[in-house]
């Protein structure tokens, strides 16, 4: 089955096609992303402009994805689109487009959760079978989920302030390293001395599994004002951020008794983070190339997982939601 996946949750128009084989194996056939550039001049994403850009681009991104996959639209056997969380106006564009395609073709439609998409972006690298721990580190989330059973997500920790990617972006901007901040910091860090500026690892000694990045941001601001080199700021911040992410995740894996950890979301592209996780002795699974930051293929992969698990498709009445927690609350006693 060829599954179309669409993500328009923020400022990327993503359309991908995934092939789900009879034996359950998944293969990305196409993954096209149009990253909006209009927002750069405002220093942040402008929701209304994001919606309009999705409307203008989605048809052509869809055409590119089908061409890359070497398919006709009628070859598609299912459609998945992100319904939340994200910017409602932006989400609606991809959601309505996906529903339209599904209805026209008379194929099943799946409303996908954006974070489930990020997690299943790793499904091309290894079979994602519960139990495992999932760390989603992106521009808006730093969430640690225990997945005791497929489709069940128990939130074991989350950021108390900024998301990890947000901290990379803000510190990059402060240091004049450009946007997006993640890759910029990562590159600058190679030329810096991580010991030049003191970055205290956040929440040391905590019993729980939360994250915090605001202290690192303040430390970066103070050091910047005191004249620290951008490369040194980048190196020191990156090391502290990687340490807190890895140590907290390792402790959570031990507490939950999990040997497998899925690390996904834009920050999972970070080289230092990948190297540090490789040293932990855990089985760590990352998304493949082009699947870390927002894209359509990861949504098709979430759809493939739903189909493989025999989950019933959604209805065309599915609507977009800005706030949509993935965690399944514990059953009442
Ligand atoms: P969310 O999924 O929480 O709604 P988002 O979709 O905006 O947020 P993603 O597209 O998953 O986020 O990730 C974007 C973030 O990833 C940005 O903050 C960016 O700086 C960060 N990022 C990208 N590449 C790297 C990298 N190599 N190192 C660190 N961070 C990175
Ligand atoms: Fe995302």
TrEMBL record:
It is found in: Cytoplasm. This is tRNA N6-adenosine threonylcarbamoyltransferase. The keyword Repeat does not apply. Substrate binds at residues 136-140, 169, 182, 270. Its main location: cytoplasm. Required for the formation of a threonylcarbamoyl group on adenosine at position 37 (t(6)A37) in tRNAs that read codons beginning with adenine. Is involved in the transfer of the threonylcarbamoyl moiety of threonylcarbamoyl-AMP (TC-AMP) to the N6 group of A37, together with TsaE and TsaB. TsaD likely plays a direct catalytic role in this reaction. Belongs to the KAE1 / TsaD family. It comes from Deinococcus malanensis.
């Amino acid at each position: 089955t060829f599954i179309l996946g669409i993500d328009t949750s923020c400022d990327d128009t993503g359309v991908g096609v995934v092939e789900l084989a009879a034996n359950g194996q998944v293969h990305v056939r196409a993954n096209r992303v149009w990253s909006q550039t209009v927002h750069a001049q405002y220093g942040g994403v402008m929701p209304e402009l994001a919606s309009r850009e999705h409307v203008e681009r989605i048809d052509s991104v869809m055409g590119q994805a089908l061409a890359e996959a070497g398919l006709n639209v009628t070859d598609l056997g299912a459609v998945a689109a992100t319904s939340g969380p994200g910017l409602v106006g932006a989400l609606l564009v991809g959601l309505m487009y996906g529903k339209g395609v599904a209805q026209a073709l008379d194929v099943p439609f799946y409303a996908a959760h954006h974070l489930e998409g990020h997690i299943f972006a790793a499904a091309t690298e290894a079979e994602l079978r519960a139990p495992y721990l999932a760390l989603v580190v992106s521009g808006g989330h730093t969430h640690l989920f225990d997945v005791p059973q497929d489709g069940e997500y128990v939130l074991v920790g989350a950021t108390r302030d900024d998301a990890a990617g947000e901290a990379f972006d803000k510190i990059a901007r402060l240091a004049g390293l450009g946007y997006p901040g993640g890759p910029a910091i990562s590159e600058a860090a190679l030329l810096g001395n991580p010991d030049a500026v003191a970055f205290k690892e956040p929440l040391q000694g905590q019993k729980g599994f939360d994250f915090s990045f605001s202290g690192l941001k303040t430390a970066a601001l103070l050091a910047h004002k005191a004249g620290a080199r951008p490369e040194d700021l980048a190196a020191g911040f990156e090391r502290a951020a990687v340490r807190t992410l890895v140590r907290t995740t390792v402790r959570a894996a031990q507490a939950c008794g999990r040997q497998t950890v899925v690390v996904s979301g834009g920050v999972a592209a970070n080289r230092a983070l990948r190297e540090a996780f490789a040293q932990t002795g855990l089985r760590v699974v990352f998304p493949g190339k082009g699947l870390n930051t927002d894209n359509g293929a990861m949504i098709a992969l979430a759809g493939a997982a739903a189909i493989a698990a025999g989950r019933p498709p959604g209805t065309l009445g599915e609507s977009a939601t800005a706030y949509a927690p993935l965690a399944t609350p514990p059953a009442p006693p």
